[in-house]
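tool=predict chain=A
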Amino acid sequence: IVAILDEVFSAIATAVANAEKSLTSARELIESYLSDIFTPQGDSWVETTIGEECQISMGQSPPGSSYNSDGDGVPLINGPVEFGGSDPFSRTVATKFTTAPKRMCKEGDLILCVRGSTTGRMNIAGQDACIGRGVAAIRSDRSQAWVNVYVGFNRKAIYALGSGATFPNVTTRDLAAFPLPLPPEEKAGLLRTSSSPSSTRPSPAS
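tool=predict ok
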């Protein structure tokens, strides 16, 4: 029995190692593909910044006394607790509410964590909501899908913007100055979102 178990465990360990190697290779392939997409090629690209292309709204926490879980007021997004999943393109969920909102986001905005250890994590706003101090909303009227994927690809770099202090904190100025290359229309079309509110992620065009 021991010999059989040793053989089974050895096979499992080999399978796990192979799976991890395949996953690493897949991630490297995706990273390489996205890096190619985001690399400006030719004069038709526009070199701009997130601040020039997008509206950035930094969250502001409402009074704690206004919080509730009964659905009174508007949904509140404070951070990953309200994220719909670990997938950065998941939609936020309404689990907490406030009757005294300070700053609002719109459905479809990119919600980015800007404080603490979760800095750089993101989701897409599932509904109009109040945004708390730990997050920012980023909105582009003409290239939201492109901005979503670009920010997602650069989450580590965005985290690094605020990692110099003991408590990471990315400011409006940091985000506004972050480079954002905009491609010609035909290349931007590689990334698209469905017009349906239920859509959660940009996908490669067919």
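Residues 2-38 form the longest helix (37 residues). Residues 193-200, 202-206 have pLDDT under 50 and may be disordered.
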